[in-house]
Specification:
elongated, 48% helix, single chain, 15 helices, Rossmann fold, 350 residues, 5-stranded parallel β-sheet, alpha/beta, two-stranded antiparallel ribbon
Length: 350
């Protein structure tokens, strides 16, 4: 088998070797569904720094237990993806006393300019992962010789989720001792406005029928997913506004202290108290805190002075995003002072 073969790879499966012969054993349903659904199998893994977002994550978990869909919305740079990654880890490892009755099926991260952003990928990926956790569902899908993923979003929902799950419900095969959780991070990066609204609407309908499903979705607070378009529905749909997290500034302070503690050059040149003087200008943006720390760490004494200089530093911004853009300009300008290392320095910080 594979005699004289070269330049190929095989994903997954169990290999048995006997006298230079390789026998491959892959679950036929898993293999066939992977071929027919073409799911995305490369989830993201960002997580919050240990000790941060503790209360907020606890709020999300309690909301999941009481509501089928939890939508977390917050402006860019506030740490939504890290929250999604941490939540996935907490659910998967049962790191919360209330999570014994919930299994993580999928954590899907919509990334700009990647396949994950393709509207046609999300539902088949969701269906594939659900089938692995729920064998009866996988068998039901495989019994459909006309399984088709080429339709639009509405058709995918009907053909791949609604119809087979309804058949199983009517057969009495959807009674679970545990609930399943699916996380979709970065909905604002996915599809068009009408498709995002349709996705959330379809998920609501799905959860009204199947109360064992749980979804957590993160997004920027775009108008199309506001309360006017998709109102809260007790027990089914709940919003959580990240801007209302009163602990954000405290968590950013923890992040800055931790970053400094783990970078000896920065620790030796800039005191913790000095680093904390930058906190008021970060204005609850984790992305800005990250850029600030990386920039100062490149050349601690010099770059800290640059940031604390009201004339040339980043304090002159009118709001947090002006501050961020101003800081990017400062980083670029300072990187170009050293032409031998300009690109490396700039890219390391950005």
């Amino acid at each position: 088998m594979f005699e004289r073969s070269h330049d190929f790879s095989i994903q997954g499966g169990q290999f048995n070797v006997h006298q230079n012969r390789y026998d491959i054993h892959v679950s036929s349903i898993e293999h066939d569904l992977r071929f027919r659904l073409r799911p995305d199998l490369h989830p993201g893994h960002k997580q919050c720094l240990k000790g941060t977002r503790v209360e907020f994550l606890n709020e999300i978990i309690l909301s999941m237990l009481a509501n089928s869909i939890v939508l977390i919305h917050g402006r860019a740079g506030t740490g939504k993806s890290c929250i999604a990654g941490s939540l996935a880890q907490i659910i998967h490892k049962k790191q919360h006393p209330e999570l014994n009755a919930i299994e993580l099926v999928m954590s899907f991260h919509c990334i700009r300019d990647s396949r994950d952003k393709d509207v046609s990928v999300l539902v088949p990926t969701m269906v594939y992962q659900l089938a692995l956790e729920f064998p009866e569902f996988g068998k039901k899908l495989m019994s459909n010789s006309n399984l088709d993923i080429s339709g639009d979003l509405s058709a995918q929902f009907d053909n791949l989720l609604f119809d087979p799950l309804m058949e199983l419900k009517e057969e009495g095969k959807t009674k679970f001792s545990k609930k399943i959780a699916i996380i979709v991070d970065g909905l604002d990066e996915w599809g068009q406005e009408d498709e995002r609204v349709l996705l959330l609407t379809k998920l609501q309908t799905l959860c009204e029928i199947h109360d064992w499903m749980r979804f957590v979705v993160t997004s920027r607070p775009n108008p199309e997913i506001g309360e006017t378009s998709i109102p809260d529905y007790p027990g089914i749909f709940k919003r959580i506004d990240l801007s209302q997290d009163k602990k954000t500034e405290d968590d950013i302070a923890v992040y800055i202290k931790s970053y400094r503690a783990n970078h000896q050059k920065l620790r030796n040149a800039v005191s913790e108290l000095e680093m904390m003087t930058l906190l008021p200008y970060i204005n609850s943006l984790f992305i800005l805190a990250d850029v600030v720390c990386k920039f100062v760490a490149q050349n601690p004494s010099n770059n800290f002075k640059i940031l604390t200089n009201a004339e040339t530093g980043y304090k002159s911004g009118k709001n947090s995003y002006d501050v961020l853009y101003s800081l990017y300009e400062t980083v670029l300008a300072e990187s170009l002072v050293d032409p031998t290392n300009q690109l490396c320095t700039y890219m390391d910080v950005i």
